[in-house]
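Incident log, support desk, overnight shift.

02:14 A customer reports that sequence design results differ from what the structure should imply. Their input is reproduced verbatim below. On-call engineer (initials T.W.) acknowledged and began investigating.
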């Protein structure tokens, strides 16, 4: 049952995220998981045990995807690390950033948005968004670094948004060099 739900979760994630590896990540095994790094982007983060890396598919800007099932319960979480050029916003505090962000996700069917929160991720100011559409919720941490928008995106299928220890560990461990 658990393998079937993970397979369904991975299939859903692939159709939603289209995660591709634009540069090969390096994986350093550690107690409780692995440190994942993208040397050319100077990005690294900890991926806890239990998260399955998604296979490569088409899609620009997606560095990596991973999924975690919900045990014996339905649903699960998908994580994607996404980068995209962004020269139209000076940073996440730009007054148009939130409007443009919500407009883009509204076009993907999301109808409910929580109030954005300014947080720190990897020593950078980031905007934290929660959003929902039927059957799916998203937790998104986005920041702008040297003309690149970088997003840590967690998609929740059939379960409510929860930071949980694994999600929080990924976010807390995120690092980007200057």
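02:41 Re-run completed on a clean worker. Output:
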């Amino acid at each position: 049952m658990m393998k079937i739900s993970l397979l369904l979760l991975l299939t859903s994630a692939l159709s939603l995220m289209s995660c591709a590896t634009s540069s090969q990540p390096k994986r350093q095994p550690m107690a409780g998981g692995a440190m994942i790094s993208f040397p050319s982007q100077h990005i690294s983060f900890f991926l806890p045990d239990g998260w399955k890396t998604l296979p490569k598919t088409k899609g620009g800007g997606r560095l990596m995807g991973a999924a975690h099932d919900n045990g014996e319960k339905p649903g699960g979480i998908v994580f994607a690390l996404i980068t995209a050029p962004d020269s139209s916003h000076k940073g996440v505090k730009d007054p148009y950033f939130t409007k443009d962000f919500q407009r883009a996700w509204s076009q993907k069917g999301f109808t409910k948005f929580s109030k954005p929160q300014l947080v720190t991720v990897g020593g950078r100011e980031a905007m934290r968004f929660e959003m929902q559409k039927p059957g799916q919720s998203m937790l998104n941490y986005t920041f702008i670094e040297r003309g690149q928008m970088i997003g840590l995106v967690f998609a929740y299928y059939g379960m409510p948004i929860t930071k949980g220890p694994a999600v929080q560990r990924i976010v807390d461990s995120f690092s980007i060099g200057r």
